[in-house]
Amino acid sequence: MRGVVRRLTWGLADQAVTSLVSFVVGIVVARSLGALEFGAFSLAWVTYGVVVNISRGLATDPLAVRFSGVERSVWRSAVARSSGMGIVVGLVTGVICAAVGLTIGGRTGAAFFALGLVLPGLMLQDSWRFAFFASGQGGKAFVSDITWALALIPLLYVASQGASVTRFVLAWGGAGVFAAVVSGFQAGVLPRVGLAWRWFVDHRDLGLRYLTENLTLSGAYQLKMYGLGALAGVAAVGTVRGAEMLLGPFMIVLSGVGLVAVPEASRILRRSARKLALFCLLLGGAQALAALAWGLLLMVALPDAWGEAMLGEIWLTAAALVLPATLSVAWAGFNTGAAAGLRALGVARRSMKAQLWASSFYFVGGVSGAAVGGALGSAWGAAAATFASAFVWWYTLRIGVRERQHKDSLLLVTRQEVPEMRST
Q: What is the pTM of this model?
């Protein structure tokens, strides 16, 4: 139990830094650029989220499932290959983003071009974080994100002098690249880009399904934002993003627990499949209650003056979105309990199907809501979709646990029969 608490504490502390960085960057950009350019920055931000999920699906998710708690020499070899895969993902997507930016032009194009320049380093930094948590070295992940936060201080100041969306993307990304370099020295592992293909081949049974799962997750969010921008304008994207930023402190809990959820679920599964189901229910329920508590606090106790101080002109429209955004995040937190259990079970085929259904619900709900009611309609549509997806996630986990219990029972019978046959 002490080990679980220690690892969870590092996960929460690390995510606290990450969420604080996201929150501060968002506030500074929103106040410096206004709704239109902040909308362009938000589109680059959600694109970064898509690329992160591509990298995690191919590189760090298989690492967490298959190399958590292994011997250090085995871990180092695996991390060298998985971090190389992260760099390759960053290089390929970086070229695509830069090309898209040059093609579309304008403020949004400038944001995408700048993002393309920093994506390889950002993917490397993210791969180091998950590698550290897989080996129980959460403190090193914390140092990595603290480095990112400290490097942002002078870079954001420089970017705010003659502020533009390009300057802010490069400041945020440049600080992340510096953190990636520091993390490499902490790990003492040299990324092997040349072995990225070998990593892909060895773990494609998990990687391809996790890639599909992660892409549909972040892709649905990104497509919803693109659809919202097309139907209601880029400023509406900034409004939704502003409401999401108000939930940033709770996201510390959600994402911090997520960093250690799969390794802990894997450890519990080794003892009992039934205990895994209980663990996932407690995990998801606790996160849902925490989200509801934070959202209620925002609606009741946050003065308008404070909201305006944080978000500027965006506060006037973002305040109305706090309730649906809170419900959406609460159900998402509840569903992550089931998702962690499915990852621990290693049933990538089942978890992929559940994610496909959930992402479809989310995209349809968010875009149809945007068509009906703009930013507010999109927020309520996303909340309803996240609620509906809960049934899919928990039903899928129930089937996975039953299959594992049946498999364990057959294995136990086989072990009992072998000695009897030998004695005979």
A: 0.70
